[in-house]
Amino acid sequence: MKKICLSVLFVLIAVSTSHGFELILIGDSRAGAGNEYYQKARHIINDAIAYTERNYENLIGIVMTGVYVKSGKNYEEWAAWVDANARAFDYPIYPCVGNHDDEDAACEWWDVACEQEAYYTWNYYNTLKVERWWSDDVEGLHLISIDSNLEGFDDETHEGELRDESHQ
Prior knowledge:
single chain, alpha/beta, Purple Acid Phosphatase, chain A, domain 2, three-stranded mixed beta sheet, three-stranded parallel beta sheet, 5 helices
């Protein structure tokens, strides 16, 4: 089984049509210079989906590497992002939380339980319905998403959890 680790900072992907399926990989679609109303994001995702549907037979999902909005706290930005990416929601989305997507919790830096509880109120979670870190098997490919934005994030603990999970 091939393994892919999705991170906010980098993505390594070794998927091609030789495996019998396609994944679209896209990231950093936040509003900004020339994309104030997500018009570029809409154009890019729609073109990517249309191209893949036209030229390939088995689009199985879209990997989104984070930084969807400028401010995770701004619900209106999330609504505009969802509208711009409407076609993407026709397929499974495999998201990663980005450093602009989080919302500050009123927690002490060391209080991971407080941070995790607050996470379930975030616009990111309520939009994408996914945990801060997750893994999934997709067509013989093991995808892993890690959120290292979490205050008190313990690399060694999560590395061990992911290592144990990937050996199951």
